[in-house]
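ugh finaly. both done.
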Amino acid sequence: MDAAVVILVLMVVFISVLYLVTVNRLNKERELRREAESREKDQEKINANSGRENNGNAMDLMQSRLTLSQIGPHFIFNSLNAIHYLCEKDTVAAQNAIEDFSLYLRENMDSMKSQVPIPFLQELDHVETYIKLEKLRYGDDLNVEYEIIATDFGVPALSVQAMVENAAHYGLSKKEGGGTIKIISLEGRDNWCVQVIDDGVGFDPDSDVTDGRSHTGIRNVRALLRTMCNGTLDIISSPGKGACVMIRIPK
């Protein structure tokens, strides 16, 4: 392995470690802040302002949990493996993958600070970066189609990306030969709608059976939508028939 490849590998490892350390520090700081606020809060003097503050703290916690659920050690490990392979085969592709990986981690860290919806196109950019990284792993088994009609609205950070990740990991990766994810955005009379549709293995949304699917991520996205923009998340799916996730944002 030549010096350039070694440098590339070390850069990726450094970025990954820095990301994990930063996320851990931010979460500890938030926990300490929430504990301090809890001690100082006078239960007999709760008013509208404190209600808004508590609402902000709840969004902080949900956003942190969503961020961590979407960037677990398995994702970093798989990305590092793919980049390591590229370092030996195609250094230019490896450099591009490192840029995408760095951008993805930075966007995830930025999302932890967000208490208001971000522009849908910004979220879509993050989805596209995520897909580039996953295609390093899945190749032609992961296909993505877009039907973007409406763009002038906001969504909670990571909300669409989390659903695309669920579709890739739990829908297509378990289907022989992979499949396709379709991302659609529409404008209705009363709301905007984002659909994430996959032709994967499907599942029963009402079942309590553990199937490895990130139900925690779904719950966090649903809670963020409700708290941040009064939005909703609905899932239509059944075993063997793929899945359709519908995010609705009221006007």
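ok and the 2nd:
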Amino acid sequence: MDVADFKRWHWVAIGLMAGLVLSGMRIFFGPAYRDSTARTLSQEQFESALLRPALSMQVRNMVLHPPDKAGNCWVTGDFSEIKSYAGPGGDNEGPRTPMQITGPFKYKAAANYKPRLWLQGMPRGQTALRAYLDAITARMPGKTVSYRYAWWEHNSAVLAIWTGGTVFLVGGLWPTLLNILIGASFASRRVHKEHAYDLSRFGKGPETPIASAVSTSGEQADLAEMAAELEKELQAEPSPAASLSMPSPPPAPVRVLAGKELEAPVSLPEDEKHYAGEFYPTAAHASQEDER
């Protein structure tokens, strides 16, 4: 079967199977942020960057991920820190040059999160990390801790997104593009010749009317007249039985040949032969002098 002969439901089935395989691999290996080389923050650094943004540390573009198999919640984003370095001469007592360092970070919080830095009015004790972030926004006027919750990392969402996306690409977009390429003569469709010879493409010829078996009275009269003539001719000719009963003529007499008796042949005297030879005997003819 040629690729161009595939129906759309064939491509949908292929996309469904490919999507299930890809989503299963994505769920099996888990999110990629756990194996990233981003800077890992401690709890003190993370909470200080949230509650004391005027200091040297800040966090931005935070993403709160769903709990992993152990129940831990991961937070990723960008972390910036201002550090002061010594001057060009390396003199620590001289003026120092501040420098801001920015890069990705990741932070792992336990399922039962127990903060170390509190705000006035916040309940103390274990809580969820998401509730802690929302409490900071509620109790600090003008301070908004913005983050996104990565709902697309749940197993059900991964299965739906990867499978649905693959079915859309392979079963929806690809057949349409393939039909456009075939219609524009960029791809060729092979015609299979293994099918039986189709006789239906030949049209039917004009039907020949079948002669009627019923004859008229005139034709019957002509037929009777021809039969009578044939009967007269057959009566005039001698029958084969009569020709066989006629006597056959007597056979001719056999002629007797007369002649003389044959004489016996006269035998002639044979010459005396001598045999000689070095390797094998041969007949040697005598010379005239020897005969004399």
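summary for the 2nd one i guess: The helical segments are 8-29, 43-51, 129-139, 155-183, 217-236, 240-245, 288-291.
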